[in-house]
Amino acid sequence: MNSKIIPITTDEIDFFKRRNWERDGTKQEPDSWVNPLLISPHDWPPPKDWLEEAPHPNHKVKSIRGGVCLCVWEKFGKANNRALIDYFKLIIPHIHLPLDLDVDMNIIDGRHRLIAYKELNIICPVYIGRQRVMFGYCWRHGVVYSDGTTDMTVKNRKGHYDLLLRR
Question: How many domains would you assign to the chain?
Answer without folding.
Answer: 1
